[in-house]
């Protein structure tokens, strides 16, 4: 499968990725290699990676507890201290083997340790393959608020091996599908249409769908690496979705949501707002809502919770001068960024979502 060339690095697929990884290890003399994993990627994925590495460089494994609740500065401090204890220097390499939490946090740790050491992302969930590992965004949550602290630093390479998702539970697969659906909605209608009837998807060709989704994101990021313009399109569904995700993560009476579950709800509501603003037709909105509701369970949100979720919007990273800004659909396959939305429209979007 042909690699995708992004901003100063390449995204490789399946076995060709290990060939490129070993060539990179031979071209560079690293003092040590640190592989960051969580309990899941340590158990299910590390055994596949280690035999593939052709190197005599010392390899150290750093394991974290899984889950978004551990994507914090406190966890970073622990990893930085371990790196110091194990003698990591500026000639060390970090390989992030895991889902979005590992690639986000690992990239942030590497890009700040001793002012930056090289890192490689090897995503092991569908979500991290098509989204988190690509684009150079690294970061952690702060006080429960998503991705408030971070850097934009590109990895040395990304290696997407679809064999890793064979052990994923269905809810994790659906979480990744949310981002793939988003890519079609914002940039490529034909990509969206491939998912309209899930029962007809040929999962034997799923590698091609993954690559196409990665290519859509990479093309957008290449145009706007620092998110001053079109890269904001990738936030479709995330303004409300991140607020919902944060609320459920921070509320002890709620069961935490997977990222894709919250983003699916956000996409339905932000599609409703797009329809209200005459950016998409009623038929397009109904199609989007029908497809997403066919894949994701509706999230139970009562009226009092709507207000608390809406209050979280002020912390969204796209906001400027205190104004909440949305990326809204402008027809399926197109997007308008920097759209101001009134609270009344947001309230109607919640009501429609629950109907």
TrEMBL record:
One of its GO terms (molecular function) is 3-dehydroquinate synthase activity. Catalyzes the conversion of 3-deoxy-D-arabino-heptulosonate 7-phosphate (DAHP) to dehydroquinate (DHQ). It holds the Pfam family DHQS_C. Its cofactor is Co(2+); Zn(2+); NAD(+). It comes from Flavobacterium humi. CDD domains: DHQS. Its EC number is 4.2.3.4. The gene is aroB. SUPFAM superfamilies: Dehydroquinate synthase-like. One of its GO terms (biological process) is chorismate biosynthetic process. One of its GO terms (cellular component) is cytoplasm. It comes from the Bacteria. This is 3-dehydroquinate synthase. Residues 176-319 form the 3-dehydroquinate synthase C-terminal domain. Keywords: Cobalt, Lyase, Metal-binding, NAD, Nucleotide-binding, Zinc. Residues 62-174 form the 3-dehydroquinate synthase N-terminal domain.
